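Support reply, case 0932

Customer input (verbatim):
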Amino acid sequence: MTPPLDLLQLRLGHRFADADLLRRALTHRSARRQHNERLEFLGDALLGFVVAEALTRRFPDASEGELTRLRARLVSGEALAAAASELRLGEFMELGHGERKSGGQRRASILADAFEALVCAIYLDAGIDACRERVLHLLGPALDQLQPGEALKDPKTRLQEWLQSRALERPHYHLVGEQERAGVWQFEVECRVAALLEPCRGTGGTRRGAEQAAAAIALEQLQDHD
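Our regenerated output:
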């Protein structure tokens, strides 16, 4: 096992008995024929199960619709890419030359897929209990922030609804900056609302995340002035 993969296993909190499973989970289809897509397929189902189980236990009074929306938020591509970025997963991935040259190790879709494959690899290596434990550890911070009801709606949706309820013009989002530091991308977005004198800026690990942050700031300012 190479030192970088040892480092990743330390971050994961799981040491693989079968190191080949870990290597395959980190191999993009652009690199070789034996890649991570089959692991990704099963990992997606495992994530859905583990998250659904955790949500039904945490929110016993939530409706099926609320639980469905909560699960969708936790296992969205954006959420999984953010979790992969926390692990700095892109540093460990095997990509084809063209994919790496184009920045594939930072692409949200590739990172999210690799995270799903990694979840499957842990399951195949050590079983469902180990898989559940690692998933809840890695997604724990996001899970702790969830609440049924209004909080299920993301800031962009809540901002849109707030403006519509008052017959106000919809918000506009503009990317104003992006930069990479130590392999992690940071995006900055402006949210412009006619009812506010100045645009609101938000940052995030993805453009969508930055838009959500900007929308949350705009909504807070509008509510304070209402």
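We compared this against your earlier run and they match. Two observations from our side: The chain has two domains: 3-146, 155-225. The beta strands are 172-181, 184-192, 200-204. Please reopen the case if you see a mismatch on your end.
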